[in-house]
């Protein structure tokens, strides 16, 4: 139950951040600058949390773990956040967020291709539902893309 509450707290945080991103974009002309500000503030906050809560664990990380998390840091934070902010700027929160929620589909494809993970009927059904949701969101005739 704790894990479910943590996942819901993360989803709530991301939902709130989407609205705050869109609001903040009214006061800044550069998506890259907004991404940089967000990354720096997140790094400082996370660094303080690690030093306070998990300093001993951080000292014992292997080089392999550090490298893997560094790659994640490049893919997820700067690139993912930049593209996320751009999509919210052009589509708005209501249309961008459902598209961003297709991440499990891409995670499944990458896991199957690169780690040999197996796919069952439930996973295929979920992937189909994600693709259907993407289709409905993208093909909505009222979707206006700002340039």
- Helix share bin: over 70%
Secondary-structure element order, as H and E?
HHHHHHH
Shape descriptor reads globular
> What structural class do you assign from the helix and strand content?
mainly alpha
Q: Tell me the number of structural domains.
A: 2
Query: Residue-averaged pLDDT, rounded?
Result: 88
- In whole angstroms, the N-to-C terminal distance is 44 Å
The low-confidence parts are none
Rounded to an integer in angstroms, the radius of gyration calculated over CA atoms is: 18 Å
H/I helix tally: 7
Biggest β-sheet strands, sense, barrel: none
Percent strand? under 5%
Summarize, please:
This protein has 147 residues and is mostly helical. Helices cover 81% and strands 0% of the residues. α2 (31-53) runs antiparallel to α4.
Describe this structure in words.
This protein has 147 residues and is mostly helical. The protein has helices spanning 2-24, 31-53, 55-59, 63-91, 93-100, 103-115, 121-138.
Please render the helix and strand layout as text:
Elements: H1 2-24, H2 31-53, H3 55-59, H4 63-91, H5 93-100, H6 103-115, H7 121-138
Keywords:
globular; 2 domains; mainly alpha; 147 residues; 7 helices
């Amino acid at each position: 139950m704790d894990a479910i509450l943590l996942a819901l707290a993360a989803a709530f945080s991301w939902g709130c951040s989407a609205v705050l991103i869109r609001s903040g974009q009214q006061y800044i002309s550069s998506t890259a600058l907004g991404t940089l500000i967000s990354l720096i503030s997140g790094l400082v906050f996370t660094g303080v949390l690690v030093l306070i809560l998990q300093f001993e664990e951080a000292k014992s990380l292997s080089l392999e773990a550090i490298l893997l998390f560094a790659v994640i840091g490049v893919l997820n934070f700067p690139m993912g956040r930049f593209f996320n902010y751009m999509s919210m700027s052009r589509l708005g929160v209501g249309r961008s967020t459902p598209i961003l929620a297709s991440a499990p589909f891409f995670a499944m494809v990458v896991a199957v291709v690169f780690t040999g993970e197996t796919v069952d009927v439930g996973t295929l059904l979920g992937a189909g539902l994600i693709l259907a949701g993407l289709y409905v969101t993208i093909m909505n005739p009222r979707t206006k893309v700002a340039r």
